[in-house]
Every structure is written in structure tokens, then in C-alpha cells.
Amino acid sequence: MGAKVLLRVWRGDAGQGELTDYQVEANEGEVVLDVLHRLQATQAGDLAVRWNCKAGKCGSCSMEINGRPRLACMTRMSLFEPDEAIILTPLRTFPVIRDLVTDVSFNYAKAREIPSFTPDPGVGLGEFRMQQVDVQRSQEFRKCIECYLCQNVCHVIRDHPENERPFAGPRFLMRIAELEMHPADTADRREIAQDDFGLGYCNITKCCTEVCPENIKITDNALIPLKERVVGRKYDPLVWLGSKITRRPRHDTPAVPVKKN
Amino acid sequence: MNDIERLPYDVVVIGAGGSGLRAAIEARQAGKRTAVISKSLFGKAHTVMAEGGAAAAMGNVNPNDNWMVHFRDTMRGGKFLNNWRMAELHAKEAPDRVWELEAWGALFDRTKDGKISQRNFGGHEYPRLAHIGDRTGLEMIRTLQQKVVALQQEDARAHGDPEAMIKVFAETTITELMKDGDRIAGAFGYIRETGQFVLFEAPAVILATGGIGKTFKVSSNSWEYTGDGHALALLAGATLLNMEFVQFHPTHMVWPLSVAGLLVTESVRGDGGVLRNSEGKRFMFGYVPDVFRAQYAETEEEADRWYTDPDHNRRPPELLPRDEVARSIRAEVKAGRGSPHGGVFLDIASRRPAEEILRKLPSMYHQFKELADVDITKEPMEVGPAQHYVMGGVEVDPDTAAASVPGLFAAGEVSGGMHGSNRLGGNSLSDLVVFGRRAGMGAAAYLDSLGGARPGASDAELEAARAEALAPLERAGGENPYAVHAEVQQTMSDLVGIIRREEEIKTALAELEKLRERAAQVSAEGGAAYNPGWHLALDLRNIMLIADCVAQAALERQESRGGHTRDDFPAMSPEWRKVNLICSLDGDRVTLRRQPMIPMREDLLALFDRSELQKYLTDEELPRVPEETS
Hints:
The structure holds 2 protein chains of 2 kinds. Chain A has helices at 32-42, 105-113, 132-142, 149-153, 155-158, 170-181, 190-195, 207-211, 218-234, 237-246, and strands at 3-12, 17-26, 62-65, 68-71, 86-89, 96-98, 101-102. By secondary structure, chain A is an alpha+beta fold. In chain A, helix 3 runs antiparallel to helix 6 (170-181) and helix 6 (170-181) crosses helix 9 (218-234). The N and C termini of chain A lie far apart (55 Å). The mean pLDDT of chain A is 92. Chain B has helices at residues 18-29, 67-77, 84-103, 136-159, 228-235, 267-270, 300-306, 322-334, 354-360, 362-372, 427-450, 459-474, 481-495, 502-519, 532-556, 574-577, 602-605, 610-613, and strands spanning 4-8, 11-14, 34-37, 54-55, 118-119, 129-130, 166-169, 172-180, 183-191, 197-201, 204-207, 240-241, 246-253, 274-276, 344-347, 381-390, 393-394, 408-410, 579-586, 589-596. In chain B, strand 9 and strand 10 (197-201) form a beta hairpin. The model of chain B has no long low-confidence stretch (mean pLDDT 95). Chain B has 18 helices and 20 strands. Chain B is globular and about 70 Å long. Chain B has a 5-stranded parallel β-sheet with strand order 7-3-2-11-18, sandwiched between helices. The chains are: A alpha+beta, B alpha/beta. Chains A and B meet through helix 1, helix 2 and helix 3 of A and helix 3, helix 4, helix 10, helix 13 and helix 15 of B.
């Protein structure tokens, strides 16, 4: 039988809540999610925790553990001192639904605004030819499990809800980079990356990279190269000239309109 | 809170994994207003956990591959108990479905000439699995998710509302299907966040709920796998096929205990990894069964040559179908030659350079490093079998995915037949998109056949569904649902697990009888808003029904075949091959009957050598087989 650990779990809903202390058994080799499950099964049957695969592959059990954004299923109990209290709180950037579960619909709304993959309609089924070296860059970004820890930690929205409209957050700027680097994509999202999705707000502090459980180099491999592409286009003399002649300042695929309620 | 919100749709898809999303896309493209019900958030379904790849005979790596070879492999893997028409459709259509994912943005690993790369896997004669490292399921779910979003963007432009034609209801659970006479009229459930009850009023329902893993203690499945679709189908009057066939995938982590059951992809073996016992011996050479002897190497030297020269050497026995490997591992452990934590060793470190392991198996590296402090480029892994998949499922028409109840369809793991008694690795992801699409088409055609008629649910039925859902919340002093669930899992794992015998199954059935009464009397503390205890209390009904089906079918089938191993009937019987076991509900009791297998079409039979068929078919069936095959 394992020793007891002290969990201080935030319990409450959108209105209010507080940290509640629980003594829960923990065994060798366990992760935080195991201990939360034991807490549910033995002391708090209605404790709201979002989880699914318990294998670090689905990105559901995101929470803040001793203040740090983490996946509960990939955080081993051996990380903590035996007598250390473990403080579990919901993601701070998103509204609380109940206990450790937050409303992450912001992310789904942003995902829907980005113009989708746009292949050449002339390419038939099975006719795509792409080299491994060319697909590899976007493949790194497609490792993303959408845990939204990067969205949660990014200071542009973490402390500034007013930026949620103009700024899509690292996950979705990375999605734009992924599509831009997709060898078979034909759309151009460079201007909207800046104008509609707020790439300029990112001042490359790399917090997103630091919390990414998939170890994706979000800043170095997605956001900075995207910034370079945007700048490259903005100051391209031919593009500038073209925009003067045709009086059409934007050639991008337009961002998808947001539903008005 | 107790009001029921009514939502009219044409098609309701229950489940948002690979088959559910593919079905929804098809229904929406056929012009039907479609609701997708997801027990989790959108994009989190269990499909994300699939690692190895999607099997499709594209012939990109070995041009000798084609649908006929794939069909043969699938039938062999399923020990000829497969619904042969499903296996045929699957083998023929899988390449187009994989290419379609590519056209929707999926980025598969590539061959040198820029095509989709394909990897070796157990039971597949040629390299056949389209893959992305070892996270193919995630790529599939994300691609389908993003395709749904792309359709919503089209709808935003056309209708001013992205959800005009296809809407995802995240974190929503269906507890009951509604009927009007013998037809489907909708689906009743609750939204997890609030506990709000909802009635989806729709003439067509597609079940795409996946499997039953949470019936067992050690399983690689996620929490959602409580057999919801299987149970909803039974309760609506449909039938389940061959529920005794449960796949125990051979390689999962066995240590630390908290990750016991975490999948270790078959790609480790496909890419060169081998299984060893505590004496360091590659024991699989001693376990090649007669039916497979012609295709598998007898020496380590030949097996090792196969990776670079597959045309002139036979396959390593580590790549036998999953049921064979799982049984062999269990036998080694039982004989006292296991690893310290009750598994065996899976070794790729001594066989491939570290750089190659990191490139081909990044999430395996990550998983062992983070959770077990094991560096798989330097040390062997400790692995053992765990519940992974259920071959049994809703009995459907192969071409339309229609169940026996009008308006009800099923695709993916929840449907039965396609994989026979044992599924080959890689045949699940392709199954999802092949039959997901067919279910979407089937539902759309069914709606067209109805004309304007719309079946409606009765108020009495609706009231009964609401009362049943509320019961655990309103009942005071009942048992803890978590405790009852743990006992069901223990019972099934101990008594109806990987190796079965009559007395044990009978004990299990008696235990289940008692547990059923306890499950019906559990209480959930707390309120209706995001209350996992209440959710589990409702899922328990489904788990109990499915456990009963599995145990009854396991008792009835007196032979060993694929994912059903009877200690007391160790041989495979050609007579039993002709028998399907069908579960249905009579009142609230699960009943079982035998149903003859439809004989295979002659042109498909002709794809096999007579000598191979002799191993599976009865003498009476053989005269239909042509003497010589090309």
C-alpha cells in the first residue's frame, strides 16, 4: 500500500470555489491522474476532471499543477517531495465549468476562422507526390494534441482577455504555419496571420514551447518562420507594386467570417 | 433543468472518432442535416490512440500488393469467421479512403518517390500500413476534424451559419434510442457540462461508439469505451454478432502499474523489434501454428533477412497475428520465463540504431522515457497482453451498414463481422473510414426512401428515458458506482479474459447476475452538472449488458479461435466456423442463438489454395472449391 499524499484541489464552478484538502493514497509509479481517480472513486465521486486516453495522446487532462500547466496523465508523482502538498487548479485562461474542467470553446472558435487546407483541385486521388523532407516540417506541428496548454500559458491572453478577439494564440498561429508549409496547399495566409490572427502580438518569449507536452518547437519552428514569411511578403517590392496598381491590398485567402450572435 | 431540449436533425451520429466523423462527413455531403455526438471534446476520441497505421493495398512499397492479397490476409487473420463481404469491400475501398484523407490534408510519411509510405505489420503479407511515425490515429482524427471544420466554413458562406448542416455536440452522452413502432425516431441523452437533457429527433442514427474496453480491468482503451453503442443497439431491438471475440493485443506496458495496459505499438516489431524471454531466447519460433507454418521463418537468420529481402525469405514469427503472439507471451510467463513484472522483453535497442528508433517510434520513446524511465534505444521494454479491441459488434448489412432495426446503422469497432475472430493490426483505421463512409451513405439513402415521413418518439418513452437517467442522482444511500464498476472489471478479467474455461465462465455469469442487481441500485452524489460519478452510474447499465453478452457467447462457443481461447476446447473446429452467435434482448435478459454463416462467394473462395481452405472448412464445404487456383 502506498503512502498518503495531500492534494489541494480547486472545487467550485463558474460562480466561486476554493481549494479543498484531501489525503489520498499514492503508489509507486503513479501519475497525478491516477491519484485523482482514486480520489473520485473513494472520496469525491462528483469531482469534475476531464480525461480520456491517460496516455498523453488526447490532450484532455490539462490543468495547473502547483501553478504549472501540465497534463495530469503525464505528471509523475515522483516529481514531488513525499510531504509536499500538490495543488491542482483549473487552467486559468479559460472560464471554469466545474472543479478542474474549463470551457475551452474559444479554441474551437479560432480553429474555425482559419482558411482550411486548399489543395490544387486538379490533383486526383492518389496523385499527390511529396518528399519526406518537405512534409516533415508540418508533421512536427501535426503532433499537436490540442491540450491548449500553450494557449493557457501565453501571456498575451492569459492576463489580457481583451486580446482574445485579435489574437488566435500559439496553437492556431502554428496551425497557420502548418498549412503555409504544407507542400500541397495553395492558399496564402500570410497577411491574415498578421492582420486577423494577431501574429504580431507574439513577442517570442517561448512559454508555449516550454509547456508543450509533445515537445514541439512552437516558437522556433512555427511562429518565427511564419513571422519571416509575413515580413518577406509585406516588403516584397513586386507585391507592393501590384497592390498599388490593382488597388486590391489583400491577395490572401480571406479569414472565415465569425458567426454573429 | 429537467426540461428536455428538442433538436431536429436528419442524421444523428453517436461517436466522433474515425468512423463517426467519416460517417457525418458523408451524410452532410449527401445534403443531410447532421449532428455528431461526442462523449469527449471534439478531436479527443479513442482513435487518437491508434499508432501503427491504416492498412490499404496501395502497393506503394511492394507493387505485388492488391485488394485480393489484403482480403486473403484479413480472412486468415480472422480465421475465416469474417463477414467475407465486409472484408472484400474493406480491401477494395481502403486505398481510396486513405488517399481521400491525403486530399483533406493528412501528411503521411513518404516513400522516396513521394508516395505514401507503407510499413510492415503482423499478418499482412506486404508492407501495407499508411502511417505517420507512430501517431497515425491522431493524424486521422485531426484530418477528419479539420474536414468537418472545412465543411462548416462552406456552410458559413452558404447559409450564414457554420452549424447549419453539421454540428458537433461535444461532451454529450446518449442513454437511449427512441423508436416509433419498429423504426428509429431519435436519440435521448444529456449534455455533460450542465446535465441538460436533449432529444435528437432524427429518423436515422449511426452508432460509431467504439468498443467495450472498460468491461475489463487491464485495457488499452479510454474511459469512453463502455460499450454504449453495443448496448443502445441491443436495447433498441438490434442484434450483436460474435461478442466472444475480444482482442488481447500482445504488447502493452506492464510496469509501472499505473500505466499497465498502455499500448506498445506493433510497429516496434514491424520495424525490427523482437520478443525475448528471461533466458534471452526469441521464443516465438516455438509457437508458429500449423495453419501459418508455410508463411513464417524457422530460423533467426531467415527472419532477419526478411526485413531487407521479403521476396526470398519468410516473415519473422514476431509478426504472427495478434492472438497468436498474445497467447505465446502468456504461455512463456506461465512457464516461468517472463520478465520481472510479469511480461516478456521487447527488444529493438540491440537491433536498430538509436537514430532510426527515434525517427520511426517517437511516441514509444517518449512514453517509456517519461512514464517508466526506460530508454528504448538502450534497453528492452517489458511488455504483456491487455484488452485492446472487440471484434464482435452490431450485426449489419455489409454494403449499407444498416442494423436490423430500420433507421439504425453502425460502423467501426461497434459493428461486428468485418474482422471475424481476430483483427489484424492496421485494419481498424481503414475499417473506420471505409464503413464510416458507407454508413453515411446508407443513412442518407434510408432518409430518401422515407420520403417526407418522420417517425416521432412517444412522450411515454421519453419520460421513461428521463426517469432512468435521473434515478442514480435521486436515489439516496445506494452503492458507489466506482466500486461496482471495479468489481465487474475484475470479474471479467479473471474469469472471461484471454484464456477461458467452462467453470470459470459460469462463475462469472453468476457473479454478473449479482452485480447487475447492485449496478441497478447505485447512487451518485452531487448534482447534474459535470458529475463523473453520475455519468459512470449511467454507463454501468451498458457495461453490465455487454459483459453478459461476452460471457454467454464465450460459454457457448466450444472451440478456440482468434480472440476466443478455451482451455477446455483448445482446437479450432471447422463445424464451429459455420456458426455465428447472435445476442439479443428478451425483455431485460440477454439471450443467445446460433445462426449459420453465409457461405463465401465462389470467386472469393477461388482466391485461396484448396490446401489452405482444408485447414478451416468442413469436408462438405470443400467440393465448392475449385481444384486448381491461379
